[in-house]
Design a protein that fits this description.
By secondary structure, this protein is α/β, with parallel strands linked by helices. The protein is built from nine helices and ten strands. The two termini are 13 Å apart.
């Protein structure tokens, strides 16, 4: 089971020195990957009445692909989007950006994708929130073609490519695509299309049920469920022994990866986040 960290997206701020220190120290501690969330825009609660989303216009989000270009020059970590909101982005542009990150990391990149929930963001990016499910179903196979074929022609409901392709192509052909999943339709989609998935619940009966649904969909699509990765997320709460127990529970549920999330733990500075990760690394035998 591979162990990484969640980039403290909403708490690290805009100091480039903090970003650099975080990435380099995470690698020194022995973690294998950094996972970053994605939001292009935040909604202003003063404008959007009754806004109840977990993030808003005041919440900091670094752009994952640009961030990863920077981290790729500083570390040899695997870099993971967890997740990119794919249907609100242009498919060919995502393919190009992902291919570039894959090249800069020498093939240490996973593209995590999902539908998202923020209709305000979709509107600002010029995409239709109501068709996002159908759109992602079309986008993922097209991404894989763009990463493996020097020139292709494709006509779908949402995208059209006529005799065009990427250069240079990525190291991984295709780049692994992982799905965020927290509902039955998402489980079925992950089983049909994904190389791996990010459950949005802790180990227990609900995870067992979700994994069974993913595996069933994979089998129905003629795929081997055993080839699908699964990455669990563990929230740091200051108790290294409890963290180790939770990590073992994820292993017992079949997780191939886990990531340690230090956000929302009352940590004030990047040094506080790194100190927590140092304790977590010792507890989990990382390094």
């Amino acid at each position: 089971m591979r162990i990484g960290v969640v980039f403290p997206q909403t708490e690290i701020g805009a100091d480039v020195g903090a970003v650099r220190a975080y990435g380099q120290r995470v690698e020194e501690l022995g973690f294998g990957h950094v996972l970053a969330y994605d939001h292009v825009l935040g909604a202003d609660p003063a404008v959007h009445e009754n806004w109840n989303g977990p993030y808003n216009v005041h919440t900091t989000f670094h752009e994952p692909m640009v961030l990863f270009g920077y981290l790729a020059a500083l570390t040899s970590l695997e870099l993971v989007t967890g997740i990119i909101i794919l249907p609100q982005r242009q498919t060919a542009l995502v393919a190009k950006q992902a291919a570039q990150v894959d090249i800069l990391t020498n093939g240490r990149f996973r593209l995590g994708v999902g539908l998202g929930w923020n209709h305000v963001e979709y509107e600002a990016l010029g995409e239709d929130f109501t068709t996002r499910g159908r759109r992602i179903d079309e986008q993922v196979p097209l991404l894989r073609r763009l990463w493996t074929e020097p020139s292709l022609t494709f006509t779908g409901e949402f995208d059209r490519v006529t005799g065009a392709g990427l250069a240079p192509l990525p190291v991984q052909r295709p780049i692994p695509v992982w799905f965020g999943a927290q509902s039955p339709p998402a489980y079925r989609r992950a089983g049909r299309l994904a190389d791996g998935w990010f459950p949005q619940m802790p180990p227990g009966p609900k995870l067992t049920e979700a994994k069974a649904a993913v595996d069933e969909a994979a089998t129905a699509a003629g795929r081997d469920p055993a080839t699908l990765g699964m990455e669990g997320r563990l929230s740091w709460q200051g108790d290294p022994e409890a963290l180790a127990v939770l990590a073992e529970e994820w292993r017992n549920h079949g997780a191939t990866h886990i990531s340690i999330n230090t956000m929302n733990a009352g940590l004030r500075t990047v040094d506080d986040h790194l100190a927590a990760l140092e304790t977590a690394a010792t507890a989990l035998g990382v390094g």
